[in-house]
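Narrative of activities, Objective 1.

The group set out to show that a structural description can be obtained from nothing but a protein's sequence at a throughput compatible with the screening campaign. Below is one input-output pair from the validation batch, recorded exactly as produced.
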Amino acid sequence: MHKVLLGFVALILVIQLFAQGKITVAVAANMQYTIEALKEEFNKTVKTKIDIVLGSSGNLTQQIMQGAPFDIFVSADTSFPQRLADNSFTAAPPEVYAQGLLVLWSTNVNIELNANLKFLLKNSIRHIAIANTRTAPYGAAAEYLLKKYGLYDNVKDKLVTGESITQATQYIVTKAVDVGFTAKSIVISNEMRGKGKWVELNRNDYPPIKQAAALLKFSEHNNTTAAKKFYQFLFSEKAKEFYKKFGYIIPHHD
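Output recorded for this entry:
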């Protein structure tokens, strides 16, 4: 009985050590390739297991508010992290790490893209991918652009909604749609580079997609030191090099 008890205690200690040896980062889907590159770079000097959970910023926010065990939230906007801060889910105020850019992308060789988007009115364009406008900031930016150009009412029946940029991207890559809106960081990644063609949309025609991250309160009860180190790394000069490489704009702090 004594040996069984000791074994049980040892097992609990192993489980606790394993739990302390990793952190979990909730990441907006547009950052899926960038975050892997950042994780690899970080692990060159700090050996921490980092689990990545991808999703739309809105859905991840909902999960955090429902108690999901995430240490850090890397959002595609500022409003979702701010909502978490306002409801006491963050250990500190959110900070902007990069600004994303919106592109139109197609893997259909017969389609000629144009940044003015009027070609979307053609009968030959039957399906247009867009991320969920309520939960995915890039989807909201695309909708804003369509409305600004006076096209939304005429193309809304063509829109095929993905729950996140990842799903919208899958629609484009698999040719389930003719064309779609996505993040520049995705189309220039090694995984997607050279697939189809894309055009960057006028960044002055939609609100800046300022992306913020937040250290979450859950980290205070999990692996605090590792979480803080990786969170700080997201704002380092080395991380900024990766953001630029993946097509993000680096914000200038006063």
